[in-house]
Amino acid sequence: MPIDLAGVHIPTVTPFSPRGEVDLDAFEANLHAWAASGIRGFVVGGSTGEALLLDAAERSNSWAAAREVAPDLALIAGTGAESTRTTVRMSRAAAQAGADAVLVQPPAFYRGAMTREALSDHYHAVADASPVPVIVYQVPLRMSTLDLPLGLLAELSEHDNIVGVKDSRGRLELIRDIVDATTDDFQVLVGSGALLQSALDAGAVGGILGVANLVPEWCAQIHAAQGRGDAEEAARLQSRVAPLHTGIVGGMGVPGVKHALDLLGRAGGAPRSPLRPLAEPGRVEVMRLLSEAGLVSN
């Protein structure tokens, strides 16, 4: 196995300075705080990290910073782009920055032209050229993306350098379908923090969880408890994590996660334009959810 993905990975947020530049000091402070939480690694440059709003140098600098802060944890770099050429170049740059694997979402702007054959060619070309293993990213369908056919995922699982998939569609039956359709060594990661325990039970090896920005210890403990057969403890923790995923990550997206981090004493801050900071009703709801989880006091 080129890389063992089992465990919980944090798709890190990207803090910005008041002038709107990437704040690497704040980013590194978050990484240091998370590194001791029992997680498996970091995903830097994913959708939670506002990757599409970052330029190539900002992504590369973030990858290098994460590698320096946490040399013993897995580093997965988000490198997907609209062209195969750019995705290959970004994947090579990520490998040079120390990434252990790359996470590649499907190109979706020319959606009507993205046939199964076009997508197959794209992923095979990226995997053939990438110096590190490739993880396919099934982006949440509420975003501008494609619903990857199960048959395509089964085909891609046979490529030696395509080692897994992150599925963020939020449906447990789809996780089961992928596990059943792909090769035995293909690693399935769930993207919904509300489904972690159930996905592990269905054959997933772990998760890339936006909610792990907020409660990395709880997410890592769900994985550990399920792994040792303590389903009761895993379920107890899952019941605490699920409302945070549903209400903040799924319900409010990046602005909600970043505001929650601010309340928890981590570096969140404002998202990059054109994303807007969380409005006041959302701020009240985030406070309520964190308070009910016992993470903050009113």
CATH H-level homologous superfamily name: Aldolase class I
The H-and-E topology, N to C, reads as: EHEHEHEHEHEHEHEHHH
Name the CATH architecture: Alpha-Beta Barrel
How far from one another are the termini?
47 Å
Tell me the radius of gyration. 18 Å
Helix content: 40-55%
CATH class: Alpha Beta
Low-confidence stretches: none
Number of domain modules: 1
β-strand number: 8
CATH level 3 topology: TIM Barrel
> Order of strands side by side in the largest beta sheet?
1-2-3-4-5-6-7-8
- Individual helix count: 10
| General shape | globular
Structural class: alpha/beta
The biggest beta sheet is recorded as: 8 strands, parallel, barrel
The amount of beta strand, in percent, is 5-15%
Overall pLDDT: 97
Note the quaternary state here: single chain
Describe the structure.
Helices cover 45% and strands 12% of the residues. The protein is an alpha/beta fold. The protein has a single domain (7-230), classed as TIM Barrel. Strands 1-2-3-4-5-6-7-8 form an eight-stranded parallel beta barrel, surrounded by six helices. Helix 3 (84-96) links the parallel strand 3 and strand 4 (101-104). Helix 8 (216-227) packs antiparallel against helix 9 and helix 9 runs antiparallel to helix 10 (280-292). The radius of gyration is 18 Å and the shape is globular. The model has no long low-confidence stretch (mean pLDDT 97).
